[in-house]
Amino acid sequence: MVTFSGNKAHNAAEGNLLTPLAVVGMSLKFPEDATSPEAFWKMLVEGRCVSTEFPSNRMNIDAHHDAERGRLHNVTCRGAHFVKEDLSLFDAPFFGITDADAKAMDPQQRLALETVYRALENAGLPIEQVAGSKTSVFAGSFCSDYHMLQIKDPLNAPKNATAGTGRNMIANRISWFYDFLGPSATVDTACSSSLMAVDLACQSIWGGDAAMGVAIGCNIILAPEMTIGLDNLGLLSRDSHSYSFDRRANGYARGEGVGAVVIKRLDDAIADGDTVRAVIRSSSSNQDGKTPGILQPSKDAQVRLIRDTYQKAGLDMGVTRYFEAHGTGTPIGDPIEARAIGTAFRPYRLEETPLYVGSVKSNIGHLEGASGIAGFIKAVLVLEKGVIPPNSSNLQNTNPQIDEDYLRLNIVKTAIVWPTTGLRRASVSSFGFGGANSHIVLDDAYNSLRLSGSESVGHQTVIVPALGQINGIRQLNGHHSTNCEDKFNDPKIACKTIPKLLVWSATDQAGIKRLAESWSTYLASLSVEEPEEYLRDLAHTLCGRRSHWAWRAFVVAKPGVLLQDLTNQFSPATQSVDSPHLAFVFTGQGAQWHAMGRELIGHYEVFTRSLTELSAYLKELGCSWDILGE
């Protein structure tokens, strides 16, 4: 039973009919400068659209462009949204792949391998820790441009072209390299492929087929054929912009990119000391069924999917204040989706408390096979930051077929702070042009953990957001419950007087140099209020939450060190030896060095455990005193 009180909805009976899942890691490479979650967020809150003309190495646009839509086999648009990085760059040796195999591989496979590595790193999960685990991999992909390019000249196709360009291999190659043993499949439901992949990853965990799930979406534009085919269907915007929910909507603009997320049971994430980015409360998928045309969406199916997703988990729809819509910018699809959202949520909203609606496609275009995961990652960031970014500056006037007031919707035009205190909840939808739909419900990490009595678990939620601070939030990934408290020392003094060991590693010597350069750039732009706390977290993450490779370098960060100076103190790169054994020997000259080594007690579990075991042995021999007591 939902009741309204002012601008709040309450449901005393909301339960956990589905086991909550935690998003513990994510990584992305989206168009232009959106190459990290931080850069992506900056683009979103600034309301930027990054459409550009087709680069010459992707398509000779002058040879294919024709402004007249009625002419087949040409394109009416001149641009799209492109990844900035050179797609030929790939660290093949790191992934154990030969040069010949790498050249035969679809860039989608290459980017997927790299992005999953960064997502695991973002989650603080060393790959040696997850190897051999019951981890599922579901990849969303829609296009096979690299395959099209290779079969144009079959006599010169690489020997390994079939394995290199088969879309099944996007998911399977990830499972192979990382030694994941759960279900592994590439999903093609067109534009809903990657959100369907997230849903399948969730289902694999709920169903017991996996203990952890990796979902990924990718899309790369390399050949003109797909663009021509989509334009022949009248789907593309001649302006090369996705005017989501705008009266100028005239089709969507294509985009490319890759995104990945790592998912666990919330209880497992808490037990493992993971940082929780957001909590998945429910996910579902369905199909439009019979509509007047195969490409025409069904409002009824969309409404049914939203309601079913909430009902199966026993969730209160009145708590939801943000909806990340599919919102492609088509004149038919946008009004249908807006009416579906309004029909589903209107009973739970008041006129003065509308549901806020946005679409990431207005910023980075329609990433097709990766579009769903782009919207999913955006929703996670919205919940973390507590700020709802605008649709891009493309949005001028809402489509007149969308009655925002009646539907109790607000198509976001300027950035706003999350409108209520307490739990933040958001919905994400994604639709395939063949009628395959997916929907996911997310809650923010902080309030989810607080309500479950797990406040000490690491998260990145900005508890009291402010528009002036939306770009200045810093929190390191990793285990945040580490502390310096013990019975011998003031914990604040201890944290600020103990030097921190920062360790970096790479698979080759040149990699250490690249790490130093990238960290130097990162630290130079960093602004933190508590550098000592940051150093503590950084040391923990680098030493305990990163994969360790053969080449190492380190810095001993002493009290008062400037973060920006850290990379100038890198030790020379050194190749580690196999199975090193380390022992500490103390001289026992306590008369010369009072309390020698005492600071290690409480800070280092191995040291404390050794003293406890020694004390037990001495007592067995009849010793009347206790080492720790002394």
Automatic annotation (TrEMBL):
The keyword Oxidoreductase applies. CDD domains: PKS. InterPro entries: Ac_transferase_dom_sf (IPR001227), Acyl_Trfase/lysoPLipase (IPR016035), Ketoacyl_synth_AS (IPR018201), Ketoacyl_synth_C (IPR014031), Ketoacyl_synth_N (IPR014030), PKS_assoc (IPR032821), PKS_Beta-ketoAc_synthase_dom (IPR020841), PKS_NRPS_Biosynth_Enz (IPR050091). Keywords: Oxidoreductase, Phosphopantetheine, Phosphoprotein, Transferase. GO terms for biological process: fatty acid biosynthetic process; secondary metabolite biosynthetic process. Residues 18-444 form the Ketosynthase family 3 (KS3) domain. The keyword Oxidoreductase applies. SMART domains: PKS_KS (SM00825). One of its GO terms (molecular function) is oxidoreductase activity. Belongs to the thiolase-like superfamily. Beta-ketoacyl-ACP synthases family. This is Polyketide synthase. It comes from Aspergillus kawachii.
